[in-house]
């Protein structure tokens, strides 16, 4: 901790998928800004490592692991445990997600359903379970994670299911902003571009993938980092964004704004 009062002091923040990548960065940053962080993940060992890192840095974090965010009962139990402790949730950051890629002609129905479960259901279930606690906050922020894939097509990545699911997340943001407005619950979306994480390194940035050279097409000339995404999440979680709801910000170095070349 820096010793300076943080931007999230006193807030109860729930973050999904905190075992690595953007979720781990979010847990560290939110705790450093003074929030009491509740995290979860399906990977228990890595999830506990995140807790240890937060604690070593002087922050406060409680993690439930493993938690299957596609399991309705498991999600409700986890969220209700938090709600019972505090009577409210101030921030819900639905960071977790998992996808597969395949051309339209090769997508099996089981693969399609897998992506919908792991990119839509695991957003919907925590939001629904936390809704009454978010409404009880009186000043709550929901942060969803979309993608450039949710607003653009791609010539180099066959991703119809991923595009559909992330487009749905962007659309959900608008409706959550509408329904949350009656309860002072704000909802916003962050849509990252190409972010260097363990998951992207193993897929889209692999040596055999056509997107491995995508850095040359990004106007700012580099791949994004988890910190680039979480910088904006901290702002959305804080009272500084108190007049912002229903937005979708592209955190992509300008990738979606200009044509390559």
Automatic annotation (TrEMBL):
Pfam families in the record: adh_short_C2 (PF13561)
Keywords carried by this UniProt record: Oxidoreductase
Protein name from the UniProt record: SDR family oxidoreductase
Keyword Transit peptide: no
InterPro entries xref list: NAD(P)-bd_dom_sf, SDR_fam
Signal sequence coordinates: none
GO molecular function: oxidoreductase activity, acting on the CH-OH group of donors, NAD or NADP as acceptor
Gene3D superfamilies: NAD(P)-binding Rossmann-like Domain
Similarity annotation: Belongs to the short-chain dehydrogenases/reductases (SDR) family.
Domain of life where this protein originates: Bacteria
Keyword hit for Chaperone: no
